[in-house]
């Protein structure tokens, strides 16, 4: 079994967003979707577009510099002292 970074996709209320991707990235998304479908035992194929949000979410969750910058920004945001204590 292939160990992918993404697991089963959550069914959440989406926000509509239109993006353009290079053809090579879309081909990779299609391949990833096919592998995810096979490895997860899904009966219906995963739509490549459904992978974009979880991939971005996973990327941001594992980006340490982003997490640190976000914490620092929250520290200095108006009202931060009231929320933290």
Quick structural gist:
This protein is mainly α. Helix content is 56%, strand content 0%.
Q: Mean of the pLDDT scores?
A: 83
Order of helices and strands: HHHH
End-to-end CA span: 47 Å
Sketch the major β-sheet: none
Helix/strand/pairing class, anyone?
mainly alpha
Low-confidence stretches: none
Question: Helix coverage percent of residues?
Answer: 55-70%
Give the CA-based shape. Answer: elongated
Count all strands and give the number: 0
Count of individual helical segments: 4
Computed Rg: 17 Å
**Share in β-strands:** under 5%
Write the layout of secondary structure elements.
Blueprint: H1 23-40, H2 49-61, H3 64-75, H4 80-84
Q: Would you write up a description of this structure?
A:
About 55% of the residues lie in helices and about 0% in strands. It has 4 helices and no strands.
Keywords, separated by commas or semicolons:
elongated
